């Protein structure tokens, strides 16, 4: 039978109602970095395949990856790799039922953000 009170019921909460929280934002960014790392891995595979194909094709691929755009993509990929790794460690900690209280969860979230930036800068300093 049709629900006659359909218009009188409250609507389900939506993203426009909620205030973004650190834990939800770091979770969303973890998913984004995981997918973005797949794309950057494809760029590296393209570079290797170009190296195996011909010198002219490798020159094209190398020009793309060593341009300012390629440097930007690889730097962001490096940050994404560190971020995704640290977020994974945070989830391993949570899987052991440690740090699930709100205060510790926020501290771990800030540690993931700060640690990923710091480790990215340290990696760049070592590489350059």
- Tell me the fraction of residues in β-strands, as a range: under 5%
The span between the termini is 70 Å
Number of strands: 0
CATH second-level architecture: Up-down Bundle
The chain-level structural class is mainly alpha
Give me the CATH superfamily. Answer: Fumarate reductase/succinate dehydrogenase, transmembrane subunit
| Tally of individual helices | 4
Describe this structure in words.
The chain is mostly helical and 128 residues long. It has one domain (21-127): Fumarate reductase/succinate dehydrogenase, transmembrane subunit (3 helical TM bundles of succinate and fumarate reductases, Up-down Bundle). The protein is built from four helices and no strands. The longest helix is centred in the first third of the chain and has 32 residues, at 22-53. The N and C termini lie far apart (70 Å). The mean pLDDT is 91.
Looking at this protein, list some descriptive labels:
extended; mainly alpha; 3 helical TM bundles of succinate and fumarate reductases; about 0% strand; about 130 residues
Please summarize what this structure is.
This protein is an all-alpha fold. Helices cover 76% and strands 0% of the residues.
Topology (elements, then pairings):
Layout: H1 22-53, H2 55-65, H3 68-95, H4 102-127
